[in-house]
């Protein structure tokens, strides 16, 4: 399959505008004193309407995976590795991010030029938002009710109001923007411009570009660690990571990684950045305190993107050619599981939900 939009030609494994690139985020249970007294006096008898030994709600984890080849999103229970449902979306979905508080997933459909909005409680499609040509990445800023979408063929970023699901503005950036990451505390969005080897820094309060940072060759994705004042530009053509000081917007150092890196996941709690190397079928682990490579892990065929779940000490890596997800334990830096996904998985985001949300499961407790 080949997708041509403006001068940018893409297949699932390749995107060219001069360089190759693989394509593919508690209820409290109370028992009153009277209930306790009555239960103690009359063992085995519970008052009418009372629940004996009520169980507190549990947190359930779901992975939303975009399947580039079948125009769908697979929803996976990451506790059991079971596929819960498959959701039809737009053409060639390439990335996804979530807004936990609003129970929404935002899916970027590259060929359609749209964003599909999914209710993560019901897994129903709520709406489809037109953006621009060849949208490639999405990042949500829940506090500002915004989603930022890179449009690789138009050299822009679409800013979506996640309360209204309308595009507020379109921000011109560098050439061939493919990746975006948000630092909510600094009110900044960092955009990787693959075709001019730069990162655009956007003020997310004003939607103005503040500066442009030269990085390595072919930056394809970017991640941030707000606590360490760092952004990590993944240079696909340079086989490296540019480490940016987000206070000064200067490159501090460049870290060599594997071949053809295309994705990144940051775990601030464990001082790790994980870089997905699409052409060497590996993930490079970087110590973010020392900027030293500490591990290289073998994953599936043609890994594409990754996301971190620090609460569970996990990183999830999509393997486009294998149709799987590799699960990394970030405490041990080992691949501990492989999950079957759909055909051509590329984007992945994690949602954690309470099993007692709104007093019902709505299909999420399986």
Automatic annotation (TrEMBL):
Keywords: Membrane, Transmembrane, Transmembrane helix. Gene3D superfamilies: YVTN repeat-like/Quinoprotein amine dehydrogenase. The chain crosses the membrane at residues 26-46. SUPFAM superfamilies: Nitrous oxide reductase, N-terminal domain. The keyword Transmembrane applies. It comes from the Bacteria. PANTHER family: DIHYDRO-HEME D1 DEHYDROGENASE (PTHR47197:SF3), PROTEIN NIRF (PTHR47197). NCBIfam families: beta_rpt_yvtn (TIGR02276). This is YncE family protein. It comes from Streptomyces cadmiisoli.
């Amino acid at each position: 399959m080949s997708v041509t939009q403006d001068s940018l030609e893409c297949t699932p494994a390749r995107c060219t505008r001069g360089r190759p690139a693989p394509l593919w985020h508690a209820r409290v249970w109370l028992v009153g004193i009277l209930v306790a007294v009555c239960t103690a006096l009359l063992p085995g008898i519970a008052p009418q309407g009372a629940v004996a030994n009520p169980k507190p709600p549990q947190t359930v984890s779901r992975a939303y995976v975009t399947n580039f080849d079948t125009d769908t999103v697979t929803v996976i229970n990451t506790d059991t590795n079971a596929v819960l449902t498959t959701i039809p979306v737009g053409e060639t979905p390439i990335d996804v991010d979530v807004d936990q508080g609003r129970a929404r997933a935002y899916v970027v459909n590259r060929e359609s030029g749209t964003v599909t909005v999914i209710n993560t409680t019901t897994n129903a499609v709520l709406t489809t938002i037109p953006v621009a040509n060849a949208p490639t990445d999405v990042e949500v800023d829940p506090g500002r009710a915004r989603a930022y979408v890179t449009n690789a063929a138009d050299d822009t970023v679409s800013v979506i109001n996640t309360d209204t699901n309308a595009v507020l503005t379109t921000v011109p950036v560098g050439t061939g923007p493919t990746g975006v990451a948000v630092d909510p505390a600094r009110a900044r969005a960092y955009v990787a411009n693959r075709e001019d080897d730069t990162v655009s820094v956007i003020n997310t309060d004003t939607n103005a570009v503040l500066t442009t940072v030269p990085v390595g060759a072919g930056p394809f994705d970017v991640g941030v660690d707000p606590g360490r004042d760092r952004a990590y530009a993944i240079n696909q053509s340079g086989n490296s990571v540019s480490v940016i000081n987000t206070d000064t917007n200067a490159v501090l150092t460049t870290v060599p990684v594997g071949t053809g890196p295309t994705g990144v996941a940051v775990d601030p709690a464990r001082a790790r950045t994980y870089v997905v190397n699409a052409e060497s079928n590996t993930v490079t682990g970087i110590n973010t305190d020392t900027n030293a490579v500490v591990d290289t892990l073998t994953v599936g065929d043609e890994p594409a993107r990754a996301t971190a779940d620090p609460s569970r000490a996990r990183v999830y890596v999509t393997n486009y050619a294998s149709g799987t997800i590799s699960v990394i334990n970030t405490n041990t830096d080992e691949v501990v599981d492989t999950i079957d996904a759909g055909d051509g998985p590329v984007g992945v985001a994690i949602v954690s939900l309470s099993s007692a949300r709104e007093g019902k499961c709505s299909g999420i407790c399986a």
